[in-house]
Amino acid sequence: MSTHWPSAPEVIPSFTRVGPKTVLPFHRVVQQDQDDLFLNRIAQRAMSRTGATGSAIALSDGDAVTCWARAGLTAPQLGAEMESGSGLCARSMSIGKVLVCDDAEMDSRADQEACSHLDVKSIAAVPLHGGGGAVVGVLAVFSTLRCVFDQAATATLEQLSTLIEGAIRAAA
Questions:
Q1: Could you tell me what percent of the chain has a pLDDT over 70?
Q2: Does residue 2 fall inside a structural domain?
């Protein structure tokens, strides 16, 4: 499998509607051919390179943290808002550290209702930092199997997170 990363992704200002909410501005980062969303390619790579069954990239607009890119069957839907006070992804963002959950049914840090709904058993979450080092989102992978994400998987996610962080800083 050939790996091709864009040297300098193009940033296109865009707007979207999230459910019944008002229109929220965000920056959509796309490949040069304008057909592939950069964040969705990263989500796809995160899933395939870690053995996950799903992945998601959630970004904050200041008021809410929303899923902007996803891949696989066990990822939240685009536009889904992450509850700020619960779940491994929210905790990863709040403490600014990589977190891994080997058994979502037994780990109190996991949002067990959401995990049960998506049949998620394992999670790894990496915080995304924007300008000034503030946490502005999370890259997460999910699996229907327990104990899937090891050090190699989290190292891969941290490498992919640097690409997302570069795009976030470029869009700011």
A1: 78
A2: no
Q: How much is the pLDDT for 65?
A: 92
Could you tell me if residue 139 is inside a domain?
A: yes
Return d(Cα 19, Cα 40) in angstroms, integer.
20
Domain-located, residue 77:
yes
Whole-model pTM: value is: 0.79
**pLDDT band at 23, cuts 50/70/90?**
very low
pLDDT of residue 19: 37
Our count of domains for the chain comes to 1
Do residues 47 and 55 lie in contact, with contact meaning Cβ atoms separated by under 8 Å? yes
Tell me the C-alpha distance between 62 and 25, whole Å. 11
Apex CA 40: angle with CA 34 and CA 43, to 5°?
Answer: 150
Tally DSSP H helices, then E strands, for the chain: 4, 8
User: Does residue 24 fall inside a structural domain?
Assistant: yes
Give CA–CA dist 24/90, Å, rounded: 21
Domain of residue 112: give its range. Answer: 10-171
CATH number where 115 lies: 3.30.450.40
What rounded mean pLDDT belongs to the chain? 81
Q: Rounded to whole angstroms, how far apart are CA atoms 9 and 147?
A: 34
